[in-house]
Amino acid sequence: MNTKEMSGGCPMAKIENISDRILGYIRKILKIKYGNEKPLRIFHTKTIGLVEGELKTEKGLPESLRVGLFKQDEPYKVWIRFTNGSPKVSEDINKSARGMAIKVLDVKSSGYLDEDPEGNTQDIILFTNSFFAPGVGEFQPAGVKLALPHFPQVIGAAFTILTGALIDGIRFFFSAPIRTPNVLEEMYYSATPYSFGENKAIKWHARPLKTITSVMPKYPEKDFLHDRMKRDLSEDAKEEISFALLIQFHVNDETEPIDDTTVIWKTPFHRVATITVPKQNIDTPERHKKDLDLTYSPGHSMIEHAPLGSVNAVRRKVYKILAKERLEHS
User: Fold this and answer.
1) What separation in angstroms does the CA of 143 have from each of 32, 162, 322?
2) N or C: which end of the chain has fewer CB within 10 A?
3) Given a cut of 90, is residue 148 above it in pLDDT?
4) How far apart are the C-alpha atoms of 118 and 122, rounded to whole Å?
């Protein structure tokens, strides 16, 4: 797949321009927040829990679905980072998009995109919304400014959204944040599209297999989501934690557009793998360090599952540069 196809046909010069504008603004915010200290991640700053698990291809998968990751029957090791989407380390009761970033290790492919310090990996980045911000244009830098507010830039950003993408802007910014009693009982979506071998496109989806039993605590502690994950993965837990990994195919450019990620695809889901999270201690110094060192990006990908569309093209560049700068910060 060539660069033009990956970027949804959007000119690379435009993608570079949008990416540079976003990077410039984010660097200003990081400087304001952290000064000369090592910065945390700009989005999905708070880790609810980093867990170790395995991903295994479904038995009896039809040949048409045995593509890329799913050619292999042996299980893969995975690192999964569950997060609050806020740019602040805030209390878990606060509304926020919730993230589930999956890093599949030691994948085998004829080619890979961006280098990952973890080796040959496939990152599957999901969150609790089935759509994303509109494609590359004035909305993307404006959306970043609203998500990372710094007056007076917010005024211009709000004006851009209200005059240029009113419906999509309101829909995205007011529906993405949620409250949840347990991130292990949420459904997660890629929102943006990816390749599935040659000439096919998909969106990813993870669906919990855990029994949904959690209710919101009456007096929630600031880290209650982390505490519940720790409890659900303890030796005393009665149920194994697992997720079904599903894919949803692009069929028609009008009903499943590649470059307009505000359109929710309605095509059927196909289960391709199961992700299992065994009992474990998520509160060790080693796990904390691993969380700080990991980087996730749409560009950490085998070519069979390459990111598609202009939104992913911008994310790929921005994530790569910010991760490099964060890890290299002394």
Assistant:
1) 19, 11, 18
2) C
3) no
4) 10
- CA pair distance 61, 54, nearest whole angstrom: 18
Alpha carbons 238 and 224: distance in angstroms, whole number: 19
Q: Which tens digit of pLDDT belongs to each residue from 272-285?
A: 999 999 999 999 99
Residue 225 clears pLDDT 90, i.e. is over it: yes
Question: Whole-angstrom Cα distance, residue 224 to residue 96?
Answer: 14
97, 85 contact by CB (below 8 A): yes
| Of 297, 306, 302, residue with least CA distance to 110 | 302
Domains and CATH numbers, the chain: 3-328 (2.40.180.10)
Is the full-model pTM beyond 0.85?
A: yes
The tokens describing 21, both together, are 């504008």
pLDDT in tens, 50-66: 999 999 999 999 999 99
The CA distances from residue 299 to 6, 150, 236, 318, 321, in Å, are 11, 29, 38, 10, 11
> Alpha carbon 72 to chain centroid distance?
24
Q: Among 318, 253, 325, which residue's Cα sits nearest to residue 38?
A: 325
Is the pLDDT reported for residue 87 higher than 50? yes
